[in-house]
Amino acid sequence: MKTLTASALLLFTSFFTGLAQAENVYDMKYQGYLIKQEAGPGSSTFFDPIPIAEISNEHLTFSGNAVLWFDENPDFAGLSPSTCCSVSLGNQGSFTVRFDQPVNSVGLNILPVAPTWDSFIESLGSSTVSAVYKNSFGEIVGQSSVTTNWLGEFWSDQFQWNNTFNGHEGAFGVSSVDGFSEITFSVEGMEGSFNAKGFSYIAPLFIASTNLYYSYANPVPEPQTYAMMLAGLGMLGFTAKRHKKLHMRA
C-alpha cells in the first residue's frame, strides 16, 4: 500500500512539474536540415536559402527576412544536421516569432559568422542584436539590445561575446513577468568599407543562430499530463478504499 501511495504521489509530482515553467528548446538548425533532406540533393531548390517562415509549426509562427542557409558546402561536407542549416541574420536581418500561448522568457543563441574573405580583413565592426516583444494586441511591452564586437587582429578569429541567458553561453534573451505573445530579433551592423591605399578592409560582423529558447507564462497541460493526473487520482482513490477496508476488518 505504501508503494501505491508513493507511486500516486510521484504521478502528482510529475503532473505539477509538467505545469511548471519549463524551458522549451526549438532546434531551428535541425528543422532546416529536415527541409533540405526532404528536398534531396538532386532538387532544383536544394541550394536555395530557406525562408524562415518554413520552419513554423503548431506552436511557433516565424516571419521576417532571415533565411536558413548551409553552414558548410554540402558538395564537400555532405548533407547532415551539422552542416545544415543555421538561421542567417547577416548584417541587417530580422525575424519574428509568434507563440501559441503567452511566454515570459525567450532567448536566442548568437553565432559570429566571419566573411569568407577573412584573409584580407584588418578589422571587423560591431553588430547590435535587438529584441522587441509585444503582447497579444500588438503593443510593445519591452525591448532590449546587446552589442557584439570582433576582437581579432589580422588573421585571427576572436569574437567578443560573453553574454549568457538562462545558463546558455553565447545567448541573448529577454523576459517579462506579465508575459508576451511575439518577439522580433534583429541585427543592425556597420557597412563594409575598403581603403585601397592602406589595404585595410573593415567588414560587417554577420550573425547567425541555431536554437530558440522559450518558456510559457501559464503553460496549458498536454493530454499526457492530464493522463498522469487522472492515473494519480485513481491510484490514490484505490489506496484510500483499500485502507478503509483494512481498517474496518481490524
Description of the structure:
The chain folds into two domains: 1-20 and 220-250; 21-218, Jelly Rolls (Sandwich), CATH 2.60.120. It contains four helices and 18 strands. It has helices at residues 2-19, 28-39, 74-77, 223-249, and strands at residues 23-27, 50-51, 60-64, 67-69, 86-90, 94-109, 111-113, 123-124, 127-134, 140-150, 159-160, 164-165, 168-169, 171-189, 193-195, 200-203, 206-209, 211-216. The strands form four sheets. Strands 1, 3, 6, 9, 10, 11, 14 and 18 form an eight-stranded antiparallel β-sheet that branches. Strands 2-4-5-17-7 form a five-stranded antiparallel β-sheet. A three-stranded mixed β-sheet has the order 8-16-15, with no helix packed on it. It is α+β, with helices and mostly antiparallel strands and 250 residues long. The model is unreliable at 7-12 and 14-18 (pLDDT under 50). Strand 12 and strand 13 (168-169) form a beta hairpin.
- The name CATH uses for the topology of the largest domain is Jelly Rolls
By CATH reckoning, the class of the largest domain would read Mainly Beta
Number of E strands: 18
State the helical fraction: 10-25%
Mean of pLDDT: 76
Which overall shape is indicated by the principal axes computed on the Cα atoms? globular
Regions with pLDDT < 50 over 5+ consecutive residues? 7-12, 14-18
* Sheet/helix structural class: alpha+beta
Residue share in β-strands:
35-45%
The tally of structural domains comes to 2
CATH architecture of the largest domain: Sandwich
Our measurement of the CA-to-CA distance between the termini, rounded to an integer number of angstroms, reads 16 Å
The total count of helices amounts to 4
